[in-house]
Structure formats: structure tokens, C-alpha cells
Amino acid sequence: MIDLPKFKIGNLEINLIQGGMGVGISGKNLSSAVANCGGAGIIASVALGSLKNYPGKYILANQNALRDEIRAAKKMSKRVIGVNIMRALTDYKELVKVSSEENVDLIISGAGLALDLPGLVQNKSINLVPIVSTAKIAKGITNIWNTRYNKIPDAFIVEGPKAGGHLGFNHEQLVNNTAPRLENIAKEVIEFANTIDKPVIVAGGIYTGKDIAHYLELGAAGVQMATRFVTTFECDADDEFKRTYLNANKEDVQIIKSPVGMPGRAIKNNFLKRVMENEEKINFKCTFNCLKPCKPKESLYCIADVLINAQKGHFENGFAFAGSNAYKATPETCLDENGNFITVETLMQRLSDEYHSPK
Predict the structure, then answer these.
(1) DSSP-assigned states of every residue in 157-180
(2) Which among 155, 220, 213, 233 is positioned nearest to 3, based on CA atoms?
(3) From CA 23, how far away is CA 312, in angstroms rounded?
(4) Confidence of residue 260 (pLDDT cuts 50, 70, 90)
């Protein structure tokens, strides 16, 4: 029996949030499986039209692809389905509109300050959850939302420096391990959130049931986990993507400089060695214009292209984003007796067992 502590976001009751992972790593299959186990299943919204070869111009293709992904996930689960929409996306507003029209349970937004999010969501029953890295940002978003829209966040996700993908800390902090610790950031945000009676969910480096227990003891309502869900049967990535986690050593999980101007955490491979160490430029034509901070003329490669390639298992021109604990995934822990990736249900049961096991 999966017995993880439940917490509430608005009218939702869940046991954890599965982090949104793009491009296409967390789609209908992973999100619905997590939802069926009592969690909030989160679809990553970035570049789905390009990933799935939808016809039409980039923004319209993404809208149609996201709409279909949400509808498919809802058919596979009648429980909590949400969408992660990065504020830095050029089609951010359009993706919020689709998510609102499709009545998702919650919208999570980071990679920039989602100051206008409540004004874009017509369906007022949808829970809105910003990702923050400091209490100051949490207070600022709350004040602006309240003043402009008579709305405050339904919860906060505090993401620390051990998360995967693009990170909200500077390169030097991450490389030199001087970024603020998640525990310290979380305590400050929790202190503020308690004044407005809203839950705080912690993220970034959460990998075991013991990690969940640790942060609940600090006062968090719950956790968001992403990396550990990659090595499950239902994860929407190709199995070759999942195997990069199984094959990674601790030193392979590194901080890189992304073309979008933010540092990121990824698993080092031959492609990254070519472009990062040799500064080999991969010729490309920017057909996406997907992220506002990106400067295609100065970039060594197209981040959308390489992440789409990775999702499909084509690592000659791609790499996998990953959290700091990705190297902990091993064949012994992530494969069943037949050599297949374990199911989300099996993983959730293990998290529950870890949570309740003696200290």
C-alpha cells in the first residue's frame, strides 16, 4: 500500500508533485501514472509541437500538441493532472490559455517571474503555483498578484541548487557549491507562507522517502520529485534516455552553460564534450524561437534540437538534463527481474517504504 503523507493545494489532496521535465520527458504517460498513485502528474509544455511533428507554425503546433497531451492524460487518469509552463517561453501566454481551457488542476510556472499568470487564467478553479528561489521572490509575487488580480498563490515550490535542467542560480555558485542550501531557502519561504496560510513544496535533489521525511520535518507540506521518475516504465522518454541515468557516475552529472544564458545540470556525454570543450558549433537555423533569453547567433547549438534528439534517444546530437542524484539510478534499483524499467506504482511503493523505514 502506498502510504505517503498527503497535503493540500487548494481543493487538491496529493502525496507529492512529479516535476515537469521537458522536452517531452514528462508527458501523458508519466503524469497519468503518477496521478493514479495519488500524486500530481505534471506535463512539461515546452516544444511539444516540434517534438511530435505537429503541422503548422511553431506556436499553433505547440498549442495543439499540449491540448492533445492534456486530454490524453485525463483519459488515462481521473485524478490530479497539471502543466509546467516556463515563463521564459515565447509562447507562454498561449500555453497558459490552452491549459486553462482544458481545465487542468494546477499550473506550475518558473524560469522567470510569472507576475501576469492570474490574469491569463480564465478558469479561476485552477490552482496557480509559482516556483521561487527566495522568500523575497515569494513575497513579491504574492503582493503583485494580490494588488493586480485579488489573487495569491495557492502554493509555492521552492527549488534548490541540486535540481536538474535550467537552474535559478549563477554558474559560479553551482560550480563552487556556494549556492544557498535548499534547507535554508525553504525555511525562509515556509516562514512567509505560513503568514498567508499557503503550503510550501520543496524541490531539487529530493530522491528518497527519507528525503521526503527530512523536509516534512522542516515544515514543508510536501515535495516535488523529477529525476527519480525518469527511470520508470511510464516515463515518456526513449529507453536510451533512461539508460543514460543508469550509466552515469557521480562525476558525469555536471553544470553546463546553456545557450539560453542560464546554467543547467546535465549528464556529460560525447556531444557535450564536443561543444563545450572544443567549442564546436553545431550549425542550425532557429525555427523555434522558443525561449526569450536565447541568442541563436551566439549559440553553439540549438537547445530545443538537442533536447528533442535526447528524448528520442539520439545522443549523437543530444544530451540529458538531470538532477544532482541521477547517478544513484542503477540497474539493481531501477530494473525489475525481467530487465524492464520499474513501474511508477513500484517506485511510489518504494518511496512509501523508505519514508516509513526506521531511521
Answers:
(1) EEE-TT-SEE-SS-HHHHHTT-SP
(2) 213
(3) 10
(4) confident
